[in-house]
Amino acid sequence: MVEVQNVTFSYYQKGREISLFSSLDHSFEDDKVHAIIGHSGCGKTTLLYLLAGLLKPKEGKLFFNGADLETRGGDRAIILQDYGLLPWKKVYDNISLGLRLNKTPNDQAKQRVTQIMEEVGISSLAESFPQQLSGGEKQRCAIARAMVTEPKLLLMDEPFSALDAMNRENMQELLLRIQRHHSMTCIMVTHSIEEAAYLSDSIHVLSKNAKGKSSFLQSIDNSHGKLNDYRKSPEYFDTCIRIRKLLENGGEA
């Protein structure tokens, strides 16, 4: 389980300290896909960066299965909105970067890179550079690079926002297949109500109050994995409406 315990975080803007979180408490269950959604400026990406260890809380702790997320890192990975690929490295080298940093033996690294490239459908692109890839291919490369280190926690910041509608749906299906196959905990930031409703086992709405402090409203449990053709089901549209009401009404779904 991912636990956010009594987290306080602030940042500086034009020399003035802005408090974003104050004693924030929340949790995310293991082996599920979680979506964090909310209006711009409420701190969704900031929370993701805190979970990734890229930012440090002023107070409080963040845990994954009981271990402090400030110190552990080998079993988590993050996919950024702009893919984060190194333009001077070929696809194979981009994907293998984490393994090289972890000093994984060459034979083992080659086997894992080859396997994950096949799983995400980019085996033929190993010798290509990022600038030669389409948006969907870049996203597959970013997913492969995150997955090759076999993380137990996958963090994603608007991972499909730059893709066209059909590529976006294809990547959503790929993510669900990978998450189920590898039994990961996934936490994804999104602005899309439809994406949150389709992908997530649980939707977490983050809201900022009149004093500028952000906190979570009630979470929405989702039945997406239990229904065939969920995107066309009444349950899917009902979930979209519940999310929209929470966003509009600030807690009343």
Labels describing this entry:
alpha/beta; 7-stranded mixed beta sheet; 4-stranded antiparallel beta sheet; 11 strands
What this model shows, in words?
With 253 residues, the protein is α/β, with parallel strands linked by helices. The protein contains 7 helices and 11 strands. Strands 3, 6, 7, 8, 9, 10 and 11 form a 7-stranded mixed β-sheet that branches. The chain is globular, with a radius of gyration of 18 Å. The mean pLDDT is 88.
Total E-strand runs = 11
Order of helices and strands: EEEHEEEHHHEHEHEEEH
**Number of helical segments with 4 or more residues:** 7
Q: Strand percentage, roughly?
A: 25-35%
Largest sheet: 7 strands, mixed
Radius of gyration: 18 Å
Helix content: 25-40%
- Return residue spans where pLDDT drops below 50 for at least 5 consecutive residues: none
Task: Give the CA-based shape.
Answer: globular
Average pLDDT rating: 88
Query: How far is it from the N-terminal to the C-terminal residue, by CA?
Result: 26 Å
Helix-strand makeup class: alpha/beta
